[in-house]
Amino acid sequence: LYLEYKLFGLNFVFYLIISLILHIINCLLIYKLAKYITRSNFWSILAVVLFSVNLTYVEPLLWTLQGLLLSTFFLGLTFLFWLKFVEKGKSNYLIKSCFALVCSSLTYGLGTGTGFVFAIITFIYNRVFVRSKLIQSRKAKIFYLCIGITSIAIGPVLSPGARAGGLCERH
């Protein structure tokens, strides 16, 4: 927002345009995730429609709460790279997923503690679906747990959204 303020001043239109672009990018990412999971255009489009009109993500668009939009983008990337990691077992997807998770934690409070969630779903996924690749799974769980602990410890200090006390404070 600082850079935007220096470029646009208090002209709300430019903030709205940038927020709209971020929202569209998130919708495209949701489509890609849904298509990757379901392999169906119908369910993918339905997911995008529900996401695009969900008030949790439309209100920040109007309030120019770009931290939430960026955090959602990074969280979507985390999930996409996690899916590719568990499918292909390549460490570069794990590293990309962890990096995106850290970015999500630092751009807004949405990603704070989410490392625990990814550690748990990696554990469950490994127990239910995959009996091989246990070494890769252990490494992933350790990475995600460390990110979860770190983001809970320093996320509220560094994340503007967590300091703000939630989505939007209206007085």
E-strand count: 0
Q: Structural class of the helices, strands and pairings?
A: mainly alpha
What is the H/E string?
HHHHHHHHH
Overall residue-averaged pLDDT value: 76
Distance between the termini: 21 Å
**What helical percentage do the residues reach?**
over 70%
Radius of gyration: 17 Å
How many individual helices? 9
How much of the sequence is in beta strands?
A: under 5%
Largest sheet: none
Model regions low in confidence, pLDDT < 50 over at least 5 residues: 161-171
So what's the overall shape? Answer: globular
Descriptive account of the structure:
The chain is mostly helical. The chain is built from nine helices and no strands. α2 packs parallel to α5 and α7 packs antiparallel against α8.
In short:
The protein has 171 residues and is mainly α. It has helices at 2-8, 12-38, 41-53, 55-63, 66-88, 91-107, 114-128, 134-158, 160-164. The two termini are 21 Å apart.
